[in-house]
Amino acid sequence: MTPSELNKPVVVLKFGGTSIASPNLIRNAAQRIARCRSEQKHVVCVVSAMGDTTDQLSSLAREVSSNPSRREMDVLLSAGEVQSMALLSMALTELGVPAISLTGQQGGILTDDRHADARILRIDPARVVESLHDDHVVVLAGFQGTDEQLEITTLGRGGSDTSAVAMAAALEAERCEILTDVAGVFTADPRLVSSAKQISTLSYDEMLEMANLGAKVLHGRCVELARRFRVPLVVASATEELPGTRIVRKVESMEEVVVRAVTDDRDVQKVSILSVPDKPGIAARLFSVLGDQGINVRLIVQAQSHEGHNDITFIVSGETLMEKSNLEAVVDQVGGTSWIVDDDVALLNIVGEGIQREPGVAGKIFSVLAEQQINLDLISSSNLVITCVVKEKDLARGAKALHDALIETDNN
Amino acid sequence: MTPSELNKPVVVLKFGGTSIASPNLIRNAAQRIARCRSEQKHVVCVVSAMGDTTDQLSSLAREVSSNPSRREMDVLLSAGEVQSMALLSMALTELGVPAISLTGQQGGILTDDRHADARILRIDPARVVESLHDDHVVVLAGFQGTDEQLEITTLGRGGSDTSAVAMAAALEAERCEILTDVAGVFTADPRLVSSAKQISTLSYDEMLEMANLGAKVLHGRCVELARRFRVPLVVASATEELPGTRIVRKVESMEEVVVRAVTDDRDVQKVSILSVPDKPGIAARLFSVLGDQGINVRLIVQAQSHEGHNDITFIVSGETLMEKSNLEAVVDQVGGTSWIVDDDVALLNIVGEGIQREPGVAGKIFSVLAEQQINLDLISSSNLVITCVVKEKDLARGAKALHDALIETDNN
Questions:
Q1: Looking at the domain assignment, is residue B386 inside a domain?
Q2: I need a labelling partner for A145 at 20 to 30 A (CA). Which of A90, A362, B39, B179 fits?
Q3: Distance CA A23, CA B63 (A)
Q4: Please, what's the largest Cα pairwise distance for chain A?
Q5: Which of A23, A69, A94 sits opposite B66 (nearest CB)?
């Protein structure tokens, strides 16, 4: 049986760990699923581990081992999702909704063998389709799969969202809802900009930029997958039944709204490698060394320091900041004299499709920040985003001023 | 590769939940395993869930469901052993001992599909043998397996011990050690009889009787399996490295020691079905009705009540005591007039091979109990055990007196 032979559209609902952190929340989630099913849909729920289960398991691991193997960490952590899927399935049955829980393996999620950071190779949804055909709600463990040797793997950051989107793609689902502890995607971080508003619709490209630029609500990886397989995504509150933010291929809007959001990212470093010989291919070598170290470079600037030598400055972000040993290796490889690291920086990102082409926007950004006497350390722009590197202390003020000037005035 | 091609003998060590209830205890267990391995053995460890994990998971289940399905309970509980196997494997690696954890499925434990009470159909130890051949310690999740549809099953009572013995049989292991929170099998419950001593060697048959007669240290099911496949069993303390109790095919002893132990069981009911028509096959029907209800009958006595009618009295023990609805069904099926249940009874069992043939023993039992003015409600005897049904209040006194008279004097 193939997904297209199912008699009702499929909806995938993904519940994050905070949304099922207690028996009470699990019962709430079950009620929401039951309502979705009563709208003549087949429902697949993808679950994370309950609340802080993953942290608790990790801390047990650290108590027995200074350096637990990635394989055994995957085995250990996989137990978290198995617990929550069984409990949610029980809560559904209690409501009279036939349900069945499936592990990553049972759900047909085949990954490569990179423990703790596995990639989904393919999904064989036969068992899921069969269970849906039997009119069961399928509760699937997110974040996990097995490789060809039946070894248990986990998907790393953004793993459960990625499981949900991948399963939605495999099932040709009508939509995939990421249900979480925020109401949707906002025009700025509401903790930073109190007037931030929820965005009703975003394009994949906009969401992808925002995810990669510090909007924590979705991981870039799952947005990328949704874009590739054209899975309509919804980000919404798990507890309140409100529309949330829809992420679709193309935002349909009579008026082209230029600036969609101002996002911020404090979790960055500015690194300068000084006096690097100006030879062809040096930037390529730098990127390749950083890539080997798993370091994500956001922005790179070369400036001549003295005859035949450049200072190379770049912004490193997110999960993998640079340590001294990494820096030494980089200096060694590209032939610089020394390095400087500045942790007291942050990124302000102004996001919107076509933002670079829109003449007034960049100018407006710079004048707003100048009015606030905020110094711009570095600037980069792309079709979708203008990024300003500022001092961390200026971040909140800058975000608020840009939001007021660029978004408050728009009919977002 | 088959087990017989391995270059060192295999020892299976089973750790109960209390023996790995904390990171500290897990590290201790790892050290013990490392010592066993350093004696030129291949080691397979079978683990239960840590401490009260199973209880915690069950209580979560009850919070989301009044009647959780057996399938989902199996999924939920299986996560407990998966956690402990990963942690023990990490602790071993931390000691420099190469180790790998395997789920029931990965360990090749194929069961039938009776969720919550599955029976092992067969074991395909290929993956375990291969890991041992690679000189790894294998840490196997006890209590769980999968059926032919790859559904997760659990083995019910005594499940982890059963996993350990079954794997030992499949691997043709030198021995299977059940490591627990007691030092071995005792001549009586030390809480009841302070002079109780540890038994150094028992036969399978003796151990089986004792297990079925209230000795909580081993479940009859795993002893039966050990007997069938002639797996030498050891019951010993998980924390102190002492010899424990060996359970073997035949106790080798110059002098035949007749009475091995006095065991007790308070967890019993005496049930009488009154005025049952005396027709052929009525006892068979009674047994079959009780069997259908999963009720374990220990002892059955028919006595004529009036012409053509008998009172049938039996002892029900252990996990499944009788409830009113069961009793009504039984009365209905065998055609009695009413029933009486007495919860205020207990069993005293005197265990030893050939005890029935040994003339003096039964007489001595009765005279000891008579001296203590303990009334015997019912008596049964077999080749291995003499069982006396007494009032619960007389249990401790009776056990102590019998132990003094029958065992203290022996060179046990």
A1: no
A2: A90
A3: 6
A4: 77
A5: A94
Query: Interface pTM (ipTM) of the complex?
Result: 0.80
Domain around A9: 3-181
Beta-carbon separation of A64 and B103 below 8 A:
no
For chain B positions 186-215, those within 8 Å of chain A (CB to CB) are: none
Q: Is B131 left (phi over 0), alpha (psi -120 to 50) or beta?
A: alpha
Q: Do B86 and A105 touch (CB under 8 A)?
A: no
Question: Does the pLDDT at position B255 exceed 70?
Answer: no
| DSSP designation for B38 | H
How does residue B253 score in pLDDT terms, banded at 50, 70 and 90?
A: low
Domain holding B23: CATH number? 3.40.1160.10
Chain B nearest-CA distance from A124, in A, is 15
User: What size, in residues, is chain A?
Assistant: 412
Please indicate, yes or no, if residue B26 is contained in any of the structural domains.
yes
Number of domains composing chain B: 1
Q: What is the mean pLDDT of chain A?
A: 89
CB within 8 Å of chain B, chain A residues 111-150: 150
Q: Does B103 touch chain A (CB under 8 A)?
A: yes
CA distance A345 to A379: 13
Structure tokens at B332: 């209905």
The DSSP bridge partners found for residue A217 are none
Q: HSE-up of B165 (CA within 13 Å, CB side)?
A: 28
A84 CB-near residues (< 8 Å, 6+ apart): A17, A20, A26, A47, A48, A49, A50, A53, A141
* Torsion of the alpha carbons at A262, A263, A268 and A269, rounded to the nearest 10: -10
With respect to residue B240, please indicate whether it lies within any of the assigned structural domains. Answer: no
Is the pLDDT at B411 greater than 50? The verdict is: no
- Residue B361 falls within a domain, yes or no? no
- Cα(B133)–Cα(B119) distance, rounded to whole angstroms? 28
Instruction: Return the pLDDT at A385.
Output: 86
Question: Are residues B224 and B158 in contact, defined by beta-carbon separation less than 8 angstroms?
Answer: no
Percent of chain A surpassing pLDDT 90: 57
Contacts of A100 in chain B (CB under 8 A): 71
- Nearest CB partner across the interface for B90, out of A69, A83, A86: A69
Sort out which chain B residues have CB atoms less than 8 A from A75's CB and list them: 82, 85-86, 89, 101, 103
* Min distance A77 CA to chain B CA atoms (Å): 8
DSSP per-residue string spanning B302-361: EEEEETTEEEEEEEEETT----HHHHHHHHHHHT-SEEEEE-SEEEEEEE-TTTTTSHHH
Q: Which residue of B has its CA nearest to A105?
A: B150
Q: Per residue in A238-264, pLDDT tens?
A: 998 899 999 988 766 545 657 889 988
């494997």: which residue's tokens? B89
Question: What is the distance in angstroms between the Cα of B112 and the nearest Cα belonging to chain A?
Answer: 18
Closest Cα in chain B to A66: B94
Residue A130 has pLDDT above 90, yes or no: yes
Tell me if chain B has a CB within 8 Å of the CB of A70: no
Q: Would the CB atoms of B91 and A30 count as touching at under 8 Å?
A: no
Percent of chain B past pLDDT 90, that is, above it, reads 57
Q: Does B64 touch chain A (CB under 8 A)?
A: yes
CA gap B61, B68 in Å, rounded: 7
Residue A297 has pLDDT above 50, yes or no: yes
Asked if A94's CB is within 8 angstroms of B83's CB, the reply is no
What is the distance between the alpha carbons of residues A28 and A88, in angstroms, rounded to a whole number? 10
Q: Give the nearest partner residue to A64 out of B82, B87, B100, using CB atoms.
A: B87
Tell me the pLDDT of chain B averaged across its residues.
89
What residues have CB less than 8 Å from A155, skipping those under 6 apart?
A111, A117, A118, A119, A120, A143, A144, A145, A162, A163
Can you give the pLDDT at residue A85? 98
- Point out the residue among A78, A87, A106 whose CB comes nearest to the CB of B60: A87
